[in-house]
Amino acid sequence: MWLVATFILCALPLVVSFALPIPISGRTQAFLAEIDKLSEGDVILWGDSSASIGSYTGPREFWWALWDTIAERGIKVVYTCFDRGAPICAESAVSDNDLVGKWGYEYGTDYVIMPYTPGQEMAMASIAAEDGFRKTYTTDNRGTPIDQIPIFQEVQDLNDVDLVLIFYHQTEYGPMHVRQWCIKYDITGIVIGQFYAVGEFYGTYIKGNLDGGLAYAEFEYLTGYLGEEILKMTMRDLQSLLVIAMLFVGFVWYAVRRTSGVTEPTGGIEHER
Fold first, then answer.
1. Measured between alpha carbons, how far is 36 from 46 in angstroms, rounded to an integer?
2. Closest CA to 187 of 211, 205, 174
3. Strand duo 76-81 + 111-116: pairing
4. Is residue 152 part of a domain?
5. Looking at the domain assignment, is residue 125 inside a domain?
6. Would you say the pTM of this structure is higher than 0.85?
7. Per-residue pLDDT of the chain (273 residues; tens, 9 = 90+)
8. Is residue 269 part of a domain?
9. Domain span including residue 121
10. Is residue 271 included in any domain, yes or no?
Protein backbone atom coordinates (compact mmCIF):
# COMPACT_ATOMS: atom_id res chain seq x y z
CA MET A 1 0.00 0.00 0.00
CA TRP A 2 2.76 2.41 0.94
CA LEU A 3 4.59 1.58 -2.27
CA VAL A 4 1.48 2.45 -4.28
CA ALA A 5 1.07 5.69 -2.32
CA THR A 6 4.70 6.62 -3.00
CA PHE A 7 4.23 6.01 -6.74
CA ILE A 8 1.05 8.12 -6.81
CA LEU A 9 2.67 11.02 -4.96
CA CYS A 10 5.69 10.96 -7.27
CA ALA A 11 3.52 10.89 -10.38
CA LEU A 12 0.98 13.48 -9.16
CA PRO A 13 3.06 16.62 -9.99
CA LEU A 14 3.56 15.28 -13.51
CA VAL A 15 -0.17 14.79 -14.09
CA VAL A 16 -1.43 17.88 -12.25
CA SER A 17 1.23 20.57 -12.48
CA PHE A 18 1.75 22.33 -9.17
CA ALA A 19 4.60 23.34 -6.89
CA LEU A 20 4.72 23.25 -3.13
CA PRO A 21 6.15 26.42 -1.56
CA ILE A 22 9.88 26.29 -0.81
CA PRO A 23 12.06 28.76 1.12
CA ILE A 24 14.17 30.95 -1.16
CA SER A 25 17.78 31.53 -0.12
CA GLY A 26 19.27 35.00 0.01
CA ARG A 27 21.80 34.18 -2.70
CA THR A 28 19.03 33.10 -5.10
CA GLN A 29 17.05 36.27 -4.38
CA ALA A 30 20.18 38.35 -4.95
CA PHE A 31 20.84 36.56 -8.27
CA LEU A 32 17.43 37.53 -9.64
CA ALA A 33 17.63 41.02 -8.09
CA GLU A 34 20.75 41.84 -10.11
CA ILE A 35 18.97 40.85 -13.33
CA ASP A 36 15.96 42.92 -12.30
CA LYS A 37 18.18 45.98 -11.88
CA LEU A 38 18.89 45.96 -15.61
CA SER A 39 16.82 47.88 -18.13
CA GLU A 40 15.73 46.93 -21.61
CA GLY A 41 18.74 47.07 -23.92
CA ASP A 42 21.32 46.53 -21.17
CA VAL A 43 23.97 43.89 -21.83
CA ILE A 44 24.95 40.73 -19.95
CA LEU A 45 28.31 39.13 -20.70
CA TRP A 46 27.75 35.42 -20.08
CA GLY A 47 30.87 33.34 -19.54
CA ASP A 48 30.28 29.59 -19.82
CA SER A 49 33.09 27.34 -18.59
CA SER A 50 30.94 24.27 -17.96
CA ALA A 51 32.68 20.94 -18.32
CA SER A 52 30.02 18.70 -19.88
CA ILE A 53 26.94 18.59 -22.09
CA GLY A 54 25.11 17.17 -19.07
CA SER A 55 25.34 20.57 -17.42
CA TYR A 56 22.58 21.59 -19.85
CA THR A 57 20.69 18.36 -20.52
CA GLY A 58 20.22 17.61 -16.80
CA PRO A 59 18.60 20.84 -15.57
CA ARG A 60 17.56 22.04 -19.04
CA GLU A 61 14.30 23.64 -17.93
CA PHE A 62 16.19 25.75 -15.41
CA TRP A 63 18.19 27.15 -18.33
CA TRP A 64 14.94 27.82 -20.16
CA ALA A 65 13.66 29.71 -17.13
CA LEU A 66 16.85 31.77 -16.99
CA TRP A 67 16.79 32.60 -20.71
CA ASP A 68 13.09 33.49 -20.47
CA THR A 69 13.80 35.79 -17.53
CA ILE A 70 16.45 37.61 -19.54
CA ALA A 71 14.58 37.71 -22.85
CA GLU A 72 11.31 38.84 -21.29
CA ARG A 73 13.09 41.93 -19.92
CA GLY A 74 14.67 42.78 -23.27
CA ILE A 75 18.21 42.34 -21.93
CA LYS A 76 20.92 41.61 -24.49
CA VAL A 77 23.41 38.75 -24.09
CA VAL A 78 26.92 38.14 -25.41
CA TYR A 79 27.48 34.45 -24.70
CA THR A 80 31.15 33.47 -24.50
CA CYS A 81 32.42 29.89 -24.22
CA PHE A 82 35.56 28.56 -22.53
CA ASP A 83 34.78 24.87 -22.78
CA ARG A 84 34.24 22.89 -25.98
CA GLY A 85 30.74 21.79 -24.99
CA ALA A 86 29.52 25.27 -24.05
CA PRO A 87 28.46 26.47 -27.54
CA ILE A 88 26.42 23.29 -28.07
CA CYS A 89 24.62 23.81 -24.76
CA ALA A 90 23.88 27.46 -25.51
CA GLU A 91 22.57 26.75 -29.03
CA SER A 92 20.38 23.94 -27.70
CA ALA A 93 18.95 26.10 -24.92
CA VAL A 94 17.82 28.93 -27.17
CA SER A 95 16.46 26.66 -29.93
CA ASP A 96 14.72 24.17 -27.61
CA ASN A 97 13.11 27.04 -25.72
CA ASP A 98 12.08 28.93 -28.88
CA LEU A 99 13.15 32.38 -27.67
CA VAL A 100 12.40 33.90 -31.04
CA GLY A 101 8.85 32.57 -31.12
CA LYS A 102 8.03 33.46 -27.51
CA TRP A 103 9.77 36.80 -27.08
CA GLY A 104 10.86 37.89 -30.55
CA TYR A 105 14.41 37.57 -29.25
CA GLU A 106 16.45 38.05 -32.40
CA TYR A 107 19.79 36.40 -32.89
CA GLY A 108 22.62 38.83 -33.63
CA THR A 109 20.66 41.81 -32.35
CA ASP A 110 19.46 40.69 -28.92
CA TYR A 111 21.88 37.87 -28.29
CA VAL A 112 24.88 36.21 -29.85
CA ILE A 113 26.72 32.96 -29.11
CA MET A 114 30.47 32.96 -29.59
CA PRO A 115 32.59 29.88 -30.40
CA TYR A 116 34.80 27.98 -27.99
CA THR A 117 37.77 30.16 -27.04
CA PRO A 118 40.85 28.30 -25.73
CA GLY A 119 43.29 29.89 -23.35
CA GLN A 120 41.25 29.96 -20.14
CA GLU A 121 42.17 33.10 -18.14
CA MET A 122 44.17 34.60 -21.00
CA ALA A 123 41.12 34.28 -23.26
CA MET A 124 38.91 35.94 -20.64
CA ALA A 125 41.38 38.82 -20.37
CA SER A 126 41.53 39.17 -24.16
CA ILE A 127 37.75 39.52 -24.47
CA ALA A 128 37.59 42.14 -21.74
CA ALA A 129 40.35 44.36 -23.12
CA GLU A 130 39.74 47.43 -25.28
CA ASP A 131 37.89 46.40 -28.45
CA GLY A 132 38.37 42.87 -27.14
CA PHE A 133 35.56 41.12 -29.00
CA ARG A 134 36.82 42.12 -32.43
CA LYS A 135 40.42 41.37 -31.51
CA THR A 136 39.54 37.95 -30.09
CA TYR A 137 36.95 36.70 -32.59
CA THR A 138 36.58 36.76 -36.36
CA THR A 139 33.13 35.09 -36.41
CA ASP A 140 30.41 34.00 -34.03
CA ASN A 141 29.58 30.34 -33.39
CA ARG A 142 27.45 30.23 -36.53
CA GLY A 143 30.20 31.53 -38.78
CA THR A 144 28.89 35.08 -39.19
CA PRO A 145 31.72 37.65 -39.42
CA ILE A 146 31.79 39.73 -36.27
CA ASP A 147 31.54 43.01 -38.21
CA GLN A 148 28.18 41.83 -39.58
CA ILE A 149 26.66 41.16 -36.15
CA PRO A 150 24.52 44.15 -35.01
CA ILE A 151 25.08 43.68 -31.27
CA PHE A 152 28.81 44.34 -31.72
CA GLN A 153 28.10 47.77 -33.13
CA GLU A 154 27.38 48.85 -29.55
CA VAL A 155 29.31 46.28 -27.52
CA GLN A 156 33.05 46.64 -28.07
CA ASP A 157 34.47 45.30 -24.81
CA LEU A 158 33.68 44.94 -21.11
CA ASN A 159 33.21 48.69 -20.72
CA ASP A 160 29.95 48.26 -22.65
CA VAL A 161 28.66 45.45 -20.39
CA ASP A 162 26.22 46.02 -17.52
CA LEU A 163 26.40 42.66 -15.72
CA VAL A 164 28.58 39.56 -15.83
CA LEU A 165 27.03 36.08 -15.56
CA ILE A 166 29.56 33.35 -14.72
CA PHE A 167 28.86 29.64 -15.12
CA TYR A 168 31.39 26.92 -14.33
CA HIS A 169 31.79 23.37 -13.04
CA GLN A 170 35.56 23.31 -12.58
CA THR A 171 36.06 25.54 -9.57
CA GLU A 172 39.23 27.26 -10.78
CA TYR A 173 37.26 28.94 -13.57
CA GLY A 174 35.16 30.95 -11.13
CA PRO A 175 38.01 33.04 -9.72
CA MET A 176 39.43 33.45 -13.24
CA HIS A 177 36.27 35.20 -14.38
CA VAL A 178 36.12 37.31 -11.25
CA ARG A 179 39.73 38.42 -11.55
CA GLN A 180 39.64 39.26 -15.26
CA TRP A 181 36.15 40.70 -15.50
CA CYS A 182 34.67 41.78 -12.18
CA ILE A 183 37.73 43.02 -10.30
CA LYS A 184 39.68 44.49 -13.21
CA TYR A 185 36.68 46.37 -14.60
CA ASP A 186 34.77 46.90 -11.36
CA ILE A 187 31.61 45.25 -12.63
CA THR A 188 29.12 43.14 -10.68
CA GLY A 189 28.92 39.42 -11.34
CA ILE A 190 26.32 36.75 -10.64
CA VAL A 191 27.40 33.12 -10.48
CA ILE A 192 26.05 29.69 -11.37
CA GLY A 193 28.49 27.31 -9.76
CA GLN A 194 29.98 26.13 -6.49
CA PHE A 195 29.75 28.93 -3.96
CA TYR A 196 32.96 28.03 -2.14
CA ALA A 197 34.96 28.79 -5.30
CA VAL A 198 33.97 32.48 -5.25
CA GLY A 199 32.84 32.90 -1.66
CA GLU A 200 35.68 35.30 -0.85
CA PHE A 201 34.32 37.72 -3.45
CA TYR A 202 30.69 37.47 -2.38
CA GLY A 203 29.12 40.74 -1.31
CA THR A 204 31.71 42.79 -3.19
CA TYR A 205 32.10 41.72 -6.81
CA ILE A 206 29.70 38.78 -6.68
CA LYS A 207 26.12 39.59 -5.63
CA GLY A 208 24.17 36.40 -6.37
CA ASN A 209 24.82 32.67 -6.62
CA LEU A 210 22.97 29.52 -7.73
CA ASP A 211 24.74 26.42 -6.48
CA GLY A 212 23.14 23.17 -7.59
CA GLY A 213 19.70 21.66 -8.04
CA LEU A 214 18.03 23.22 -5.00
CA ALA A 215 19.06 26.70 -6.13
CA TYR A 216 17.77 25.94 -9.63
CA ALA A 217 14.41 24.95 -8.12
CA GLU A 218 14.40 28.13 -6.03
CA PHE A 219 14.99 30.21 -9.14
CA GLU A 220 12.17 28.49 -11.00
CA TYR A 221 9.82 29.03 -8.08
CA LEU A 222 10.88 32.66 -7.66
CA THR A 223 10.29 33.43 -11.34
CA GLY A 224 7.03 31.48 -11.53
CA TYR A 225 8.44 29.02 -14.07
CA LEU A 226 7.05 25.56 -13.36
CA GLY A 227 10.02 23.54 -14.60
CA GLU A 228 11.55 20.16 -13.91
CA GLU A 229 13.72 21.29 -10.99
CA ILE A 230 10.81 22.61 -8.92
CA LEU A 231 8.77 19.51 -9.83
CA LYS A 232 11.61 17.30 -8.57
CA MET A 233 11.58 19.19 -5.27
CA THR A 234 7.79 18.88 -5.06
CA MET A 235 8.06 15.10 -5.52
CA ARG A 236 10.67 14.90 -2.76
CA ASP A 237 8.53 17.03 -0.45
CA LEU A 238 5.52 14.80 -1.07
CA GLN A 239 7.64 11.72 -0.32
CA SER A 240 8.81 13.33 2.90
CA LEU A 241 5.22 14.12 3.87
CA LEU A 242 4.33 10.46 3.23
CA VAL A 243 7.12 9.31 5.54
CA ILE A 244 5.90 11.69 8.25
CA ALA A 245 2.35 10.42 7.75
CA MET A 246 3.53 6.81 8.04
CA LEU A 247 5.32 7.60 11.30
CA PHE A 248 2.26 9.39 12.66
CA VAL A 249 -0.05 6.51 11.77
CA GLY A 250 2.40 4.08 13.35
CA PHE A 251 2.55 6.02 16.61
CA VAL A 252 -1.25 6.34 16.74
CA TRP A 253 -1.70 2.64 16.01
CA TYR A 254 0.80 1.72 18.71
CA ALA A 255 -0.88 4.05 21.26
CA VAL A 256 -4.33 2.61 20.48
CA ARG A 257 -3.09 -0.95 20.90
CA ARG A 258 -1.40 -0.12 24.21
CA THR A 259 -4.52 1.66 25.49
CA SER A 260 -6.70 -1.31 24.58
CA GLY A 261 -4.40 -3.62 26.49
CA VAL A 262 -2.84 -5.35 23.50
CA THR A 263 0.93 -5.74 23.67
CA GLU A 264 3.28 -6.26 20.76
CA PRO A 265 3.74 -9.79 19.37
CA THR A 266 6.11 -12.09 21.22
CA GLY A 267 7.49 -14.91 19.18
CA GLY A 268 4.99 -14.09 16.44
CA ILE A 269 1.88 -14.56 18.66
CA GLU A 270 -0.10 -11.67 20.15
CA HIS A 271 -1.33 -12.09 23.74
CA GLU A 272 -3.46 -10.21 26.21
CA ARG A 273 -1.94 -8.79 29.38
1. 16
2. 205
3. parallel
4. yes
5. yes
6. no
7. 656 655 565 565 555 565 667 889 999 999 999 999 999 999 999 999 986 777 787 888 999 999 999 999 999 999 999 999 999 999 999 999 999 899 999 999 999 999 999 999 999 999 999 999 999 999 999 999 999 999 999 999 999 999 999 999 889 999 999 999 999 999 999 999 999 999 999 999 999 999 988 999 999 999 988 877 787 776 666 666 666 666 777 778 777 877 876 665 655 555 544
8. no
9. 23-230
10. no
